[in-house]
Amino acid sequence: xxxxxxxxxxxxxxxxxxxxxxxxxxxxRRAASTTWQNKACIPxxxxxxxxxxxxxxxxxxxxxxxxxxxxxAIVIPGALGIELIAGFQRIPQWxxxxxxxxxxxxxxxxxxxxxxxxxxxxxxxxxxxxGSVWAVCSVLLAGLWSLLSLLSVRSxxxxxxxxxxxxxxxxxxxxxxxxYIKGGAAAxxxxxxxxxxxxxxxxxxRRSGTPTNFHAPAILGIGVVxxxxxxxxxxxxxxxxxxxxLTMLLAPLLCWVMETSPLRHRKPWLVxxxxxxxxxxxxxxxxxxxxxxxxxxxxxxxxxxx
Length: 306
What we know:
Number of helices: 12
Shape: globular
Distance between the termini: 17 Å
Radius of gyration: 19 Å
Number of strands: 0
Structural class: mainly alpha
Strand content: under 5%
């Protein structure tokens, strides 16, 4: 059963560790560059996730035995490692994106490893269907990551990180209501670490007098990978519907609406607020429908205990 107090403890611990580490890393260099701040986020997020999952008693087995283990032990560490490499100024952007696309292509295969979807048996799907799912999911992830990265360069703002945190939080709640409680709880440390590091970096930018130049590719990349991974396991190993998964995955792209000519040159706080509101609309719709389904499916069980 869900344990709200434990979840709050895990989120609080993850957020505090991440924020304190990023602050300490930035303090080492009083005139820290944007590149240094971005790189400081990576170990900060790593430590925050480790502490958060430790509080939740999530200890992925090695070798991993299920999709959630592979997400926590392979996929997210892989994203962290690639963003660390990409953060070095001497690394060309095409190399960084080549590594990201390798990860994008591998994630569906990693998460489906050992499952009935790849068995090719009479009980599973034909291998050509599994290959189609693999290809479509990789294209969706590549498109989302690329478009959000382009938006973060075109219109840098902390609101994009907040949108990802909001979407991941809603994903966790929806996955829980779809019957995969542990998979939904896995979203909480990710939200806490991304929110903490985003806030710290934004405050540093604001203190420097350039709040509109917020740009942290590491936060964006890890957020996108985490969001996709949670939706993927919720869809294929929980009871999350395809429609709900696609809606939440693509909802952050509504931020592009604010790039239309009548809206783009508005005040940054207004643009950020409207981004959050636009993305919140489909997320709330998915949550409401998930709650209706949850109440319908759980009411017979609750009546038995009453």
